Amino acid sequence: MPEAIREVSGLGPNDLTDAILTATTPVVLRGLASGWPMVRAALESDRAGSDYLRRYYQGATVGAMLGPPEAAGRFFYNDDLSGFNFQPIHAKLNGVLDEIENKRHMNPAPTVYVGSTTIDTCLPGFRQFNDLNLGHRDALASIWIGNRSRIAAHYDLPDNVAVVAAGQRRFTLFPPEQLENLYVGPVDFTPAGQAVSLVDFLQPDFDKFPRFAEALKHAQVAELGPGDALFIPSMWWHHIEALSPFNVLVNYWWRQSPDYMDTPTNALMAAFLTMRDLPPEQRKAWQEIFRHYIFEADEETAAHIPPHARGVLAPFNADGARALRTQLLKRLNR
Q: Rounded to whole angstroms, how far apart are CA atoms 146 and 96?
């Protein structure tokens, strides 16, 4: 059975420490947001939770996904991975909430899902009473609303605190080194921007995906209710199940890096273009170059070069990053 995620209790929205928010393993924060008015409304009833959201809604259009009943809440590819099993739409949030309410007694029901919507745009004023204090971190606060759903295992570059504001959710997490055992699908054609595991966690096909059994030995799992939160470190794979007819998740994303740094995904995509198909010995040589200059770089890497002549080997700042980005764009567009 998967290992239970480590838990901490007794903290409130203003009690999150740097030790928690820079951890390299996940942490369940039981009752962290139990005092939020949104959480109290959701505990009263699904309708009260829905009405609480409507209180702040001012008519902005939201992006949503509609899944057919036969998908059983799983937002995924179609059978041959040429497309997806859901329909993206733009809608008014009031209409989405009405649809969730109207479908709550259907089994199986069509899946309705509003994903990663910026709270301050969609629900201005909501965070005045329902928020976390993350200190100096400039986090992106988003809201996710839907009925029962399953989101395939994926990773995110930012660190993440996910707060269950309504309903019940099950999180299954894997450390980054389990990549090869999760049978990840296409990198450049994905359901929602991130590459996902092709394994159906509720019905894993071990004949087709035998190494998934090894991944499960390293899995960590937790079930969260209203007011509970989970810290998910950068790059940890996470599979999320919304288990209730009405679910609301609030999450905060931030990066432990300067704003001028680009996403490493750009480097990965460039590596597909420039290195992946090189002869094996050349790939090995480039592996050594990346080890030396990137993955194990320290103060000794360029110590033999005068500081004024180190170029990209010197520490970066915003101006240096901007100049290098311009140079790279010229090279890619040649």
A: 8
